[in-house]
Design goal:
Mean pLDDT: 94
Strand content: 25-35%
Oligomer: single chain
Low-confidence stretches: none
Shape: globular
Number of strands: 30
Helix content: 10-25%
Structural class: alpha/beta
Distance between the termini: 53 Å
CATH superfamily of the largest domain: FAD/NAD(P)-binding domain
Number of helices: 9
Radius of gyration: 22 Å
Strand order of the largest sheet: 1-2-10-9-8
CATH class of the largest domain: Alpha Beta
CATH architecture of the largest domain: 3-Layer(bba) Sandwich
Number of domains: 3
CATH topology of the largest domain: FAD/NAD(P)-binding domain
Length: 426
C-alpha cells in the first residue's frame, strides 16, 4: 500500500503509521514485521544509495545465523532483508537524509525528490553505529592517502571496485578487523600486521587462530600505532609496545582503523532525547522506548556494536513494542537505572520498568574492557548485593558480553524508593 501523502505550501508531507530511520538490519527487520499488521503504512528512510546497511558491502560469509537460521554473505543477507521488507509492503526511500525534527514524531527530509516532511504516529530510530576514524583516535603523524576505516575500505572495494595498496597494517583485533583482512586479501593487498592493545586479541579464538595460521596474518598484542608516516601516501607506521615502551617501524602503504565504535546518535542529540552516558546512544528501557513517547530505538544505535543478526532481532522486538504502543499509547511507570560498574564499560538497555517485557532475547548486553574466562556478575543496589551469578561463557574486550536478564531482581512499583542497579564484573 502506498504511504498516504498530501501537498502543502511547504512541500510534500508523508503520513505513515510508522517511520523507521535507518535501512540496516534492525530497521528493515522491524519494518518487515510491522507492515503486514499496519496495511503497509511503514516508511523506511535510508541515507545511502541502497538499503541493507553495513552487510551490503561486507562481502564475506557469516550473516543471518540467528535471525534467518542460515549462513549467508553480507550482500546476500542485505538483499534478503530488503526483499522481505518490500514484499511485506514497506516503502523504502533511499538517498533520504533526515535533517532535523519538526515535531515530537515528525521530521524534515532531504531527498532527490526534494524536501519532504514526514509525520508519523510512531518513530523507530535504527541509525546504527560507526567506527572512529584516525582523527578521533588522535593518532599523530602525517596525513597521507591510504588510511581507512573498515567501512570506508569495504565500500571502496566491494561497491566501487577501487584498488587499495599492496601492504597493510590493520589496527584492532575485533571481529570487524578480520572482516577488513578478508577485504584486503580480495583487493590483492597483503596484511603485514594486525595490532591489538589487549594481551588477548578481542575476536573469538577461532577467528584469531584461523587468521594467523590459514591467512598468515601476524598479530602484535599489547601494541598500538603511535604515528603514521608518509606523503602523499602512507609509507609506514610506528608501533609501540604498551608494556615495554619499545618502538618499531612497519613498512606499509595502507592502514585500516577497525572497531572502536560510537553510535550514530545525531538525531538523538538534536531531538533532545535522553542519552545513556555509557553507550552514548539513546537511553531506552527493555521495551526499547526512548524518553519521548512514541519514539523507539533498536540495533547498534543502542549497543555499539553487536552482530547484524542481533541488530535484526532487536528490530523485531522493537516492532512488537511499537505495535503495542499504537494500539494503546501508554504512559510508562518510572524506571530504575541500570549502570555499568567495575570491569564494565556499558550495559544496555539502561532502564527497567515494572511490568515491561524482557529485553530482546532475554539478554542484557554489556561491554568488558578485560578478558575473564569465568566471569562473575554482581548486581548491587544502594550498596547491597541483590544478585550474583557466575556464567560459563567468557567476557572479552571487543565483543558483547551477554547476561540473562533473569539475573536482575524484580522492579517494584514507583514510590518504593529504589536506587539504580549497578552491575560489576569479577
Amino acid at each position: 500500500m502506498t504511504i498516504t501523502q498530501r501537498t502543502t505550501r511547504v512541500g510534500t508531507t508523508l503520513t505513515p503509521d510508522v517511520l523507521i530511520i535507518g535501512g540496516g538490519p534492525a530497521g528493515l527487520s522491524a519494518a518487515a514485521r510491522l507492515a503486514p499488521r499496519l496495511g503497509g503504512q511503514v516508511l523506511v528512510l535510508e541515507r545511502e544509495a541502497a538499503a541493507g546497511g553495513v552487510p551490503r558491502h561486507s562481502d564475506h560469509t557469516g550473516y543471518g545465523l540467528r535471525d534467518l537460521r542460515r549462513v549467508m554473505t553480507g550482500p546476500a543477507y542485505a538483499r534478503r532483508l530488503v526483499r522481505d521488507a518490500t514484499r511485506a509492503g514497506v516503502e523504502i526511500r533511499t538517498r533520504a537524509m533526515v535533517t532535523h525534527w519538526a515535531g515530537p514524531r515528525s521530521v524534515e527530509v532531504t531527498s532527490p525528490e526534494g524536501r519532504l516532511r514526514v509525520e508519523a504516529r510512531a518513530v523507530l530510530l535504527a541509525t546504527g553505529a560507526r567506527e572512529r576514524p584516525r582523527a578521533a583516535r588522535r593518532i599523530p603523524g602525517d596525513r597521507p592517502a591510504g588510511v581507512y576505516t573498515t567501512g570506508q575500505l569495504q565500500n571502496a572495494v566491494h561497491l566501487h571496485g577501487a584498488r587499495v595498496g599492496r601492504r597493510a597494517v590493520v589496527v584492532g583485533g575485533e571481529l570487524v578487523s578480520w572482516s577488513a583482512v578478508l577485504t584486503l586479501r580480495e583487493a590483492g593487498c597483503e596484511v603485514a600486521l594486525m595490532t591489538s592493545e589487549y594481551a588477548r586479541t578481542e575476536a573469538y579464538s577461532a577467528f584469531t587462530l584461523c587468521g594467523r595460521t590459514v591467512l598468515g596474518v601476524p598479530v602484535a598484542n599489547r601494541a598500538r600505532v603511535v604515528r603514521v608516516i608518509g606523503s602523499p601516501r602512507v609509507r609506514a607506521v610506528e608501533i609501540e609496545h604498551l608494556d615495554t615502551g619499545a618502538r618499531r617501524t612497519v613498512d606499509c602503504d595502507t592502514v585500516v582503523f577497525t572497531g572502536d565504535w560510537i553510535p550514530d546518535h545525531e538525531l538523538v542529540r538534536t531531538g533532545g532525547l535522553d542519552l545513556a552516558p555509557d553507550t552514548r546512544g539513546p537511553l531506552v528501557d527493555t521495551a526499547l522506548r526512548t524518553s519521548r513517547p512514541g519514539v523507539f530505538a533498536a540495533g547498534n544505535l543502542l549497543h555499539p556494536v553487536d552482530t547484524a543478526d542481533i541488530a535484526a532481532l532487536d528490530g523485531r522486538h522493537a516492532a512488537d513494542q511499537v505495535l503495542s504502543w499504537l494500539i494503546s499509547p501508554d504512559d510508562p511507570a518510572p524506571g530504575v537505572r541500570l549502570l555499568a560498574g567495575d570491569g564494565l564499560r556499558w550495559v544496555a538497555p539502561g532502564l527497567l520498568r515494572p511490568g515491561d517485557p524482557a529485553p530482546p532475547r532475554g539478554r542484557l548486553l554489556l561491554w568488558s574492557d578485560r578478558y575473564v574466562r569465568l566471569p562473575r556478575v554482581t548486581v548491587r543496589q544502594e550498596g547491597r548485593v541483590v544478585a550474583r551469578r557466575t556464567l560459563p561463557w567468557p567476557a572479552a574486550p571487543g565483543r558483547v558480553f551477554r547476561v540473562p536478564s533473569s539475573l536482575l531482581p524484580p522492579v517494584r512499583p514507583a514510590g518504593s524508593g529504589q536506587g539504580p542497579l549497578t552491575l560489576s564484573l569479577s
